[in-house]
Amino acid sequence: MAFTLAIVGRPNVGKSTLFNRLVGRRIALVDDRPGVTRDRREGDARLGDLEFTIIDTAGLEEADGGTLEARMRAQTEEAIRLADVVIFMVDARVGLTPDDHVFANLVRRSGKPVILAANKSEGKVGMAGAYEAFGLGLGDPVPLSAEHGEGLSELYDALAVHMPVPTYEDDAVEHDEDEVDDPNKPIPVAIVGRPNAGKSTLVNALIGEDRMLTGPEAGITRDAIAVDWDWGGRKFRLVDTAGLRKRARIEDKLEKLSVADALRAIRFAQVVVVCMDAEKPFEDQDLRIADLAAKEGRAVVLAFTKWDLIPHKGGKAAKLREETDHWLPQIKGCPVVANSAETGQGLDRLMQAIIDARVPWQKRISTSQLVRWLQETIDHHPPPAVSGRRIKLRYMTQAKTRPPTFVAFCSRPEALPESYLRYLVNGLRESFDMQGTPIRFHLKKTDNPYADTGRKIY
């Protein structure tokens, strides 16, 4: 059974910095200002030979019910409930504050084992604050510096006392990491869209719990938060991301970090669910986000959220299908699902669409089929003559999947018009049932098959 460790404390004491240190990657957003972290984020961590799941949490604050801060605190209290051990962190340079005493009582009442960590303990001032932490009554403080990696050996000793004795399987089987589609591995799915498009609410509705922080305020989500979930016998890793605004409107450093986190989630996903508000779909930013996902080579599913707010739905779904093909011809035929997180309408259809979108995205077509198709296509509509010279396409093969990538050998690749390339790509979609998936197409010169012109179509 996995061992879980939660890091809690008031804002800006260094919880996310320690989280990144133990995970071994800078995946939690870190900034000098307090209150950067809002949702709880989980990661696989390691300290020496100790392996465990770690939860980064929002800073504990006194807050009235219904406010954003109160909802953040509820997420932190849930992390404490899920944890086997709690690290209660204080800022040794600031010293103890009244809030530290209040929240120390909260952790004590949980009944969970507590490790008191005095962060920022480097230097004389820091060590003085670390000694002051004895006053919380949570045991001996562990002085450390999450930023500089100091004090981790002491943290190891404090954590090892609570860790279960590891067991090892003698007949462990190694799995091939390059396996095309391992059903035991979760399918990574990124949920993206403009701010307040209903992404976090959608994730909560899918998994059936208030895992993500939600509310009427736009831009609540900052970190890209991953949640593992099973549906229909398949494992999924749903990644909720920050809302993506137009680049010209992004000035704040923290928002830039959030956007970078969301873009990273798109690059590492297999399927990208682009959420659009059904009341005002196909705004310029919606189209940019969908186009970005297609250019990254991801399978795309369009989710029209807040469907319960649409009156007189007759014919609206068919119109959305028609408008999708008009505004996004590069992914024409991609799955389109109208859904409502409030009523649960369309959620099962959305998950099935995610599975269906992967089928053409990882399709493999034999070279013999492609060569035969290419010859028939050229016979029906040959390439145009440029400067009085006919362009010859002689051979074609599929280089890779995810997304489908094709290479055609051509006598004069630099002269082949873009319109004819689009004709070939659209023909591939029609002939081999690859509607809605991005396709990459490369041309190589016949007399030197290793000279890539770099021309592509997505």
Automatic annotation (TrEMBL):
Associates with the 50S ribosomal subunit. NCBIfam families: GTPase_EngA, small_GTP. It comes from the Bacteria. GO terms for molecular function: GTP binding. GTP 2 binds at residues 193-200, 240-244. This is GTPase Der. Keywords: GTP-binding, Nucleotide-binding, Repeat, Ribosome biogenesis. Residues 3-167, 187-362 form the EngA-type G domain. GTP 1 binds at residues 9-16, 56-60, 119-122. It comes from Phreatobacter stygius. GTPase that plays an essential role in the late steps of ribosome biogenesis. HAMAP family: GTPase_Der (MF_00195). InterPro entries: G_ENGA, GTP-bd, GTPase_Der, KH_dom-like, KH_dom-like_a/b, P-loop_NTPase, Small_GTP-bd. Belongs to the TRAFAC class TrmE-Era-EngA-EngB-Septin-like GTPase superfamily. EngA (Der) GTPase family. Pfam families: KH_dom-like, MMR_HSR1. One of its GO terms (biological process) is ribosome biogenesis. Coiled coil: none annotated.
